[in-house]
């Protein structure tokens, strides 16, 4: 008899606690919903499912922040009329030859600077250094060389021999005719 009496005494308290929590949760939730602003939302955390349909319009979007890839389906509409012919582009180029420097034999630890010069009328577009034993040289510099950038005829490299033996190396340049 005693156990039954204890159970009936505790049951109303449990019901009151549950009701209190329900009321507190309902009012607390409404209170929290009214207080959330954009400042409290971390960038990139709101997904499309979190936004009610037809509630975002052009005034809510920063200009230039949406790209065509952000749209699903044909959101861009039909293409417009063809524009006017543009200006003629810069003249092209034609790779003609490769220039190489003489062969150098830097001693172990030695740094060598070498130049590859393109023939007259051609421009060095790129270049580098090579060796006969793979990648044992350390390339310190590789760049075009000229006083006048429109007549850039040479390529320069600086390499360090990181081996314990003499190594053969040379510099090369890709030479082209710029039209």
Describe this structure in words.
The structure is a single chain. Among the domains are: 37 residues; 86 residues, Jelly Rolls, CATH 2.60.120. The model has no long low-confidence stretch (mean pLDDT 77). Strand 4 and strand 5 form a beta hairpin. The longest helix has 34 residues. It has a three-stranded antiparallel sheet with strand order 1-6-3, with no helix packed on it. The chain is elongated. With 179 residues, it is of the alpha+beta class. It contains one helix and six strands. The protein starts with a helix and ends with a strand.
> What is the CATH class of the domain at 93-178?
Mainly Beta
The helix/strand order is HEEEEEE
Shape: elongated
Average of per-residue pLDDT values: 77
Low-confidence stretches: none
- Can you summarize the main beta sheet? 3 strands, antiparallel
How much of the polypeptide forms β-strand, as a percent range? 25-35%
Q: What strand line-up does the widest sheet have?
A: 1-6-3
**Any idea what the radius of gyration is?**
38 Å
CATH architecture annotation of the domain at 93-178:
Sandwich
The CATH topology of the domain at 93-178, please?
Jelly Rolls
Termini separation comes to 109 Å
Helix content: 10-25%
What is the tally of helical segments? Answer: 1
Category from helices, strands and their pairing:
alpha+beta
- Please provide the count of β strands: 6
């Amino acid at each position: 008899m005693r156990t039954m009496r204890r159970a009936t005494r505790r049951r109303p308290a449990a019901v009151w606690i549950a009701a209190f929590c329900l009321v507190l949760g309902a009012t607390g939730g409404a209170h929290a919903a009214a207080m959330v602003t954009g400042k409290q939302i971390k960038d990139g955390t709101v997904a499309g499912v979190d936004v009610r349909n037809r509630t975002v319009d052009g005034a809510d979007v920063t200009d230039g922040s949406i790209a065509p890839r952000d749209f699903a389906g044909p959101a861009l509409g039909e293409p417009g009329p063809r524009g006017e012919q543009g200006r003629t582009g810069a003249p092209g180029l034609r790779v003609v030859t490769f220039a190489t420097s003489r062969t150098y034999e830097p001693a172990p630890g030695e740094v060598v600077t070498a130049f590859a010069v393109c023939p007259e009328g051609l421009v060095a577009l790129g270049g580098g250094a090579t060796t006969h034993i793979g990648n044992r040289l350390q390339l310190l510099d590789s760049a075009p060389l000229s006083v006048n950038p429109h007549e850039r005829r040479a390529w320069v490299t600086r390499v360090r021999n990181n081996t314990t033996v003499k190594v053969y190396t040379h510099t090369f340049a890709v030479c082209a005719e710029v039209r």
